[in-house]
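Standup notes
- DV: blocked on the single-chain target, sequence here:
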Amino acid sequence: ISARVEEGVFDVGGCRLPVATGSDPRLVPRTLFFDIPRHLLTLREIMRDLSLGERHLLLIGSQGTGKNKLVDHLLEKLQWEREYIQLHRDTTVSALTVQASIADGNVVWEDSPLVRAV
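- DV (later): unblocked, structure below
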């Protein structure tokens, strides 16, 4: 199994997705990734689901097993943007829906990346 980008298409083991154009480069991850067979098989499974129209995926696994690394590599190759949200046992609904930022010296509340994504 191999992975390559050719003519605006990312291909992993025969599963193909088009590379996006017009993405904000500040939000496209840049990763160091090694194309080992197990990683490529998992990438192909994720790409298969995406190619079938699945837009929401949940990766479950122990801490440090490479879930973020796989997704970041896929996003980099597809030129898709990513915004990171850290979840933990004390995460509240309001923390998932709004975020505070400072504009002109004032605190303003904005929709979170999760709300903007939906």
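- Follow-up: Strands lie at 3-6, 9-12, 15-18, 98-103, 106-111.
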